[in-house]
Design goal:
By secondary structure, this protein is an alpha/beta fold. It is built from eleven helices and six strands. One of its GO terms (molecular function) is DNA binding.
């Protein structure tokens, strides 16, 4: 059973979440909070498996408390905000996923909760695009002439990535297709796919979304 806390200042939203999850046999809502500070107190006490966290709330917003919450629970952002700074801030703060209202079905919410509870990650399609935008704004570009960030270089070496795999990962973070990566590096699309499979295995991720999340994590 997945214990869930819902954090949103809008009671209509909290009621909607209850409705979405009413038929789930493996998820139960054990608490609700309407602001960030109340959420920290509640989560510290209940230690739920997953917390659904809105961004815009009174007293303390989601960005202000995501770090504190993630020390006690897995966090899944559930908000209407698509600002790149908000997305990257939530993910850097420890959120395991980011869902945008209007961009997912009720079944997607349940799947996301299960995935995050299991230690995985989940981004709605729009949030994935926004995360890539955040990478472009805040992360190093593959064609930057300046020095690379030592912390990220160290992290990538720790995973045993080759220089070519690091180049592919750099381009992956810009959101371009496998074919475009191949053109930039002089590789066939099949070779790019092989590199990506090796990268995912070394990083312990399953897909591009998880690789982007890991990239953001090492860009803190």
């Amino acid at each position: 059973m997945i214990d869930l806390v819902v954090v949103d200042d809008n009671p209509i939203v909290r009621a909607a979440v209850r409705g979405f999850l009413a038929g789930a046999s493996d998820v139960r809502i054990v608490g609700e909070a309407s602001d960030g500070r109340a959420a920290v107190r509640l989560v510290t006490s209940l230690r739920p498996d997953v917390t659904l966290l809105d961004y815009r709330m009174p007293v303390a917003d989601g960005l202000a408390v995501v770090g504190d919450l993630s020390a006690h629970t897995r966090v899944l952002a559930l908000t209407s905000d698509t600002d790149p700074g908000t997305v990257s801030g939530m993910l850097r703060g420890g959120a395991g996923g980011y869902l945008v209202w209007g961009q997912f079905r009720p079944d997607d919410l349940l799947d996301a909760i299960r995935e995050v509870a299991a230690g995985g990650s989940w981004l709605s399609p729009t949030a994935a695009s926004v995360a890539v935008t955040a990478l472009r704004r805040h992360g190093p570009r593959p064609d930057d002439a300046g020095p690379r960030d030592p912390a990220r270089e160290s992290a990538l070496r720790r995973y045993g990535l080759s220089r070519r795999e690091q180049e592919v990962l750099d381009l992956l973070g810009t959101g371009i297709t496998n074919a475009a990566i191949g053109r930039r590096l002089g590789l066939t699309e099949k070779t790019v796919k092989n590199h990506l499979n090796h990268i995912f295995a070394k990083l312990g991720v399953q897909n591009r979304t998880e690789a982007v999340l890991l990239w953001l994590d090492h860009d803190r």
